[in-house]
Each structure stands twice: as structure tokens, then as C-alpha cells.
Amino acid sequence: MKLWLPYPNPPAVDFITPLTDLIVMSWRVYQDIHHVINECGRQELSWLGKVVKTDEGRRSIYYISAIRLLEQRSSSVHTRLDPAAIAQVAHEWIMEEGGKDNPCRFWGHTHPGSCTEPSSQDDAQMQHFIHGKFTPPFYIRGIFSKGSQHYHGEFTLYDYQRGIKIRHMPWEVEDRTRQQKWTRRIARRVRTS
Ligand SMILES: [Zn+2]
Questions:
Q1: Dihedral angle over CA of 34, 40, 41, 45, nearest 10
Q2: Rounded distance from Cα 190 to ligand 1 centre (Å)
Q3: What whole-number distance in Å separates Cα of residue 19 and Cα of residue 71?
Q4: C-alpha 87 – ligand 1 centre gap (Å)
Q5: According to the model, what pLDDT value does residue 83 have?
Q6: Does residue 176 carry a pLDDT above 90?
Q7: Residue 77: strand, helix, or coil
Q8: Residues around the ion ligand 1 (C-beta < 5 A)
Q9: How confident is the model at residue 94 (pLDDT cuts 50, 70, 90)?
Q10: Ligand 1 center to 117 CA (angstroms)
């Protein structure tokens, strides 16, 4: 006998405090993505990116330091990266980061129209990235469109440790290399009196 049943809604996650996790990209990455959107014409183009996550207290920063356009098949409705090219760039970036974690954790692609909504293929592609392998702790998907007046970008964070994805992630542009250069320069040349 069933006296009452759950309301047939799927589980949902809401934030009760503002989300402090942040995607940060270097100025160079920001410019590089701009150039790809500029040059993509009416095609979907894909690239991968190198991401390092740092935890500051309860806050996580996802820093995108480089992107790479790979060999791919592309049309106005789909983009498919060459698996051998994915393996090659992942190997290269793992070596650069000291041979431990795989920092290849960002897939970006353009949409020829003005829409940054993911297609069902885009969702399937995310499954493909983790299929048959060790599931990464996280992955970032970015979709970029030309829009009518401005280019737009939308980032989704796939947090596989918490088993959730966060759409419309906040992001910022920052050039850490230049910032560090100026921090060092000031420390070297300025004496406080
Ligand atoms: Zn897409």
C-alpha cells in the first residue's frame, strides 16, 4: 500500500551562498580564444586547454594557462578532435607539469550561430572524454559564439568528485606571468622608507 509518493521531479542543486569558485584565464588565452572565434567562419572549431586547479580555503580557482587547436574534423554542425592528437597534447602537458596530473582539462569549441547552449552531441562528447578511463576530478567545457554584437563564452564546470556540473561559471582574465614579473620587479627595485 502506498499512501503518498515523492513528487516526480529530478533532484536539483541550488546555491545557498554565492559561488566563490572561479575560472581564471591568462590574457594570452583570452586573446587566443578571440582569434579562433574570429577565424572560425561558419564552422564549429575545437581546442583543448591546460588547467591547473588551486584551492584557497573553500574556494577553488581553475587557471587556464594555454590552449591548443588540434587536428580535427569540422563542419557547421559538429567538431570532432583526432584522438591521437588529444593523447599527444595530454602527454606533452603532463611532462611539462612534472609527470603527475594530466592538466588537459578544458575543451572549448565555437558555435557558428549566436547560441552557447550545448547540443546533445556536446553532452555526448563530455561522456566520451571520460569514457573508459580514470575519471578526472574535473573538466571544463566552454562554448563560444559570435553573437550579433559581441562574442560570447559560456563555461560549464564538470565536478566529477561532487558529481555535479555547474553551468555559467564565473570567469576572469588575469595575466599571472606579467603580474609575477611586476611583483618581483617591485620587490627588487623599491625600498620602503
Ligand atoms: Zn556545440
A1: -140
A2: 50
A3: 36
A4: 21
A5: 87
A6: no
A7: coil
A8: 119, 122
A9: very high
A10: 7
Whole-number Å distance, alpha carbon 118 to ligand 1 midpoint, is 5
State in Å: Cα 40 to ligand 1 middle. 13
Distance 119 CA to ligand 1 centre (A): 5
pLDDT band for 133, please (50, 70, 90 cuts).
low
% of the chain beyond a pLDDT of 90: 61
User: Is residue 114 pLDDT above 70, yes or no?
Assistant: yes
Domain definitions of the chain by residue range: 22-184
Instruction: Find where cell 575543451 sits.
Output: 107
Report the chain's C-alpha Rg in angstroms. 19
Instruction: With beta carbons less than 8 A apart as the criterion, state whether 22 and 55 touch.
Output: no
CATH of 22-184, one of 3.40.140.10, 3.40.50.2300, 3.90.190.20, 3.40.50.300: 3.40.140.10
Grid coordinates of 53: 586547479
